């Protein structure tokens, strides 16, 4: 594990127990068993560390959603979407709890910008999923429906996060229940409040354009950070393929699948998948 990953993992434990504001850099370094100098080589400040944790948490969720939306067939798409959301919250429950508690009184501009960015990204994924599932049937209500889905995610995630183990065994039931509710709204709701114009006014524009050179640079950074493992080998091969395409689509899909589940490869997996425009089935 790299020093940066160690700091993030240990800091998250302290943030979950004490909150962002109550946790000092000194406490983090003591808990990690490192010097302050080592901390500041990895992060310029505690705020930068918090932003890195937000990225890590939200990249994992958005990457998983993106994978489901792009790969599942229509019959299983909505169920897989909800199941993936709540499973991600289960896997990252510590930071989910911290994030929900801290958002209400955190006014750091970088923090707000990050949250709005990921919020918009998730909205676009949900909208793409709904349009694919229901088509013209929801032309007048799709934006309202998208906000209903977001509300389901938020409300039930909060219930899920703060009620512990008893809910863990009910992911199937919860997901199926929300599929039913979403389907009813999509097929029977007639009145719409949110229009495309209103959404345009309140949304944060996304700049998702990324060049091949930028992806290669991100790959180099990630390769340097990781210990020897199959995911690191897959990253090396993917970087080679970007620089000199020689692998078949099947091999590239396999390499992407190798890195998709690694907690520190979510963003690069998402970027590569969209850049290469490959749909991984299964």
From TrEMBL:
User: Which InterPro entries does this chain map to?
Assistant: DNA-bd_HTH_TetR-type_CS, Homeodomain-like_sf, HTH-type_Tx_Regulator, HTH_TetR
Pfam families per the UniProt record, alphabetical: TetR_N (PF00440)
Annotated Gene3D superfamilies: Homeodomain-like, Tetracycline Repressor, domain 2
- Does the UniProt entry include the keyword Transcription regulation? no
DNA-binding in keyword set: yes
Record's signal peptide: none
The ranges the UniProt entry gives for DNA binding are 24-43
Listed A to Z, the keywords are:
DNA-binding, Repressor
Q: What positions does the domain HTH tetR-type occupy?
A: 1-61
Which PANTHER family does the protein's record reference? ACREF/ENVCD OPERON REPRESSOR-RELATED, ACREF_ENVCD OPERON REPRESSOR-RELATED
User: In its UniProt entry, what is this protein called?
Assistant: TetR/AcrR family transcriptional regulator
Q: Which organism is it from?
A: Ornithinibacillus salinisoli
């Amino acid at each position: 594990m790299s020093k940066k990953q160690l700091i993030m993992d240990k800091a998250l434990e302290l943030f979950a127990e004490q909150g962002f504001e109550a946790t000092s850099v000194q406490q983090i370094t003591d808990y990690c068993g490192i010097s302050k100098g080592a901390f500041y080589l990895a992060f310029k400040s505690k705020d930068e560390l918090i932003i890195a944790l937000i990225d890590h948490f939200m990249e994992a969720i958005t990457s998983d959603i993106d994978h489901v939306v792009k790969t599942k067939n229509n019959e299983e798409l909505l169920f897989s979407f909800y199941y993936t959301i709540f499973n991600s919250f289960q896997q990252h429950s510590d930071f989910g709890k911290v994030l929900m508690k801290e958002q209400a009184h955190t006014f750091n501009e970088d923090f707000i910008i990050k949250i709005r960015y990921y919020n918009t990204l998730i909205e676009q994924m949900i909208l793409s999923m709904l349009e694919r599932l229901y088509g013209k049937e929801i032309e007048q209500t799709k934006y309202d429906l998208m906000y209903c889905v977001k509300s389901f995610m938020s409300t039930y995630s909060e219930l899920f996060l703060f009620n512990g183990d008893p809910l863990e065994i009910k992911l199937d039931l919860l997901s199926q229940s929300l599929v039913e509710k979403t389907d009813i709204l999509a097929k029977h709701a007639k009145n719409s409040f949110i229009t495309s114009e209103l959404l345009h006014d309140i949304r944060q524009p996304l700049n998702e354009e990324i060049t091949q050179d930028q992806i290669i640079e991100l790959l180099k950074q990630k390769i340097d950070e990781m210990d020897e493992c199959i995911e690191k080998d897959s990253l090396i091969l993917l970087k080679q393929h970007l620089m000199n395409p020689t692998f078949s689509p099947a091999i590239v899909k396999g390499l992407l699948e190798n890195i998709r589940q690694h907690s520190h490869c979510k963003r690069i997996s998402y970027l590569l998948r969209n850049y290469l425009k490959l749909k991984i089935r299964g």
